[in-house]
């Protein structure tokens, strides 16, 4: 039986990525990040891939890239 990949709660995802929970919600609202899947108790859950994407967004923003520039780069990775 395959085991499900563990999901990180928003606080854990924030600590792992260096992005605050408020910014994670903002990036979701802006379409830079898919809204986290909901766990059984309705908390947002984030995969390791989504945490990696948050790190990428944080690094782009640290280089003063606009949200549109970050969005363009994320779309190139499809």
Q: Treating each run of at least 4 consecutive H or I residues as one helix, how many helices?
A: 4
Beta-strand residue percentage: 5-15%
What Rg do the Cα atoms give?
Answer: 13 Å
Uncertain spans: none
N-end to C-end Cα span: 30 Å
The overall pLDDT, averaged over residues, is 89
Biggest pleated sheet: 3 strands, antiparallel
How much helix, percentage-wise, in residues?
Answer: 40-55%
What coarse outline follows from CA principal-axis ratios?
elongated
Global structural class: mainly alpha
Output the helix-strand order: EHHEEHH
Tally of DSSP β-strands: 3
Question: Order of strands side by side in the largest beta sheet?
Answer: 1-3-2
Q: Any overview of this molecule?
A:
With 78 residues, the protein is mainly alpha-helical. It is built from four helices and three strands. It has helices at 10-17, 21-29, 48-62, 67-76, and strands spanning 8-9, 37-38, 44-46. Strands 1-3-2 form a three-stranded antiparallel beta sheet. Strand 2 and strand 3 form a beta hairpin. The termini are far apart. The relative contact order is 0.18. The mean pLDDT is 89.
Q: Which structural traits does this protein have?
A:
single chain; 78 residues; mainly alpha; 3-stranded antiparallel β-sheet; elongated
How are the SSEs ordered, and which strands pair?
Layout: E1 8-9, H1 10-17, H2 21-29, E2 37-38, E3 44-46, H3 48-62, H4 67-76
Helix pairs in contact: 1-3
């Amino acid at each position: 039986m395959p085991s499900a990949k563990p999901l990180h709660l928003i606080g854990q995802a924030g600590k792992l990525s260096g992005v605050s929970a408020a910014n994670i919600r903002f990036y979701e609202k802006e379409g830079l990040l898919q809204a986290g899947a909901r766990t059984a108790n309705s908390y947002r859950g984030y995969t390791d891939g989504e945490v990696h994407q948050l790190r990428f967004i944080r690094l782009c923003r640290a280089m003063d890239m606009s949200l549109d520039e970050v969005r363009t780069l994320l779309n190139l990775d499809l």
